[in-house]
Hints:
CATH superfamily: q2cbj1_9rhob like domain
Helix content: 25-40%
Number of strands: 9
CATH class: Mainly Beta
Distance between the termini: 29 Å
Strand content: 15-25%
Structural class: alpha+beta
Number of helices: 5
Strand order of the largest sheet: 1-7-4-9-3-2
Number of domains: 1
CATH topology: Jelly Rolls
CATH architecture: Sandwich
Radius of gyration: 17 Å
Amino acid sequence: MINSTTFLNWDALKEAAVQQEPFPFAVIPNLIQQPVLNSLVESFPTIKNRGSIPSESVKSESIFQNFLSELKGPAFRQVIAEKFELDLKDKPTLLTLRGYTTERDGHIHTDSKDKLITVLLYMNPTWDTPEGKLRLLNSKQSLNDYFAEISPLAGSCLIFKVTPNCWHGHSTFIGKRLSLQLNYLSSEAAFAKHHHHHRFSATLKRLFPKLFPAKEENYY
């Protein structure tokens, strides 16, 4: 059995530099340790519809549950707090999973102001297309005005501080695109709002899947 403390590449996380402009962010290409990467990718829960699903709303294998526990644990929180010079003590966390993107996803946006930090971690074993790569943008005007681009390959991680100008997005990709998103939220009220929204949405998609179809082109 794999011990949960072996999942994250702590050295890579601690050594990653935080770029301050135009908003604070860090990219870690190998956040997951190589010996367990394939096992985690293979154990990613089955998600049949678009949208963000709370991690506790989907069934997952024990190895994946242990991995999520490490992500939500105090050691990871402490490193993020120190890197971004924030007090994240006792801040609620929301962890969601995504399985597919459609033409409705990727539009330029900033995260809501009640999110303090966003952690995006990708879980795709390969990525052979330019579409669907996340771009960090200088403004909300164009996806081509970007200063960083992150391929959604398994183990690639982006962490950024949520600011009024944390513009990001990706070109349209229709198909399977596996990712996790961990947010540290400003308050319990913010957690309740976001968690209720995602859980209610996940329930609707489970009960009425035909109303929320995932496009079948480009599955792989």
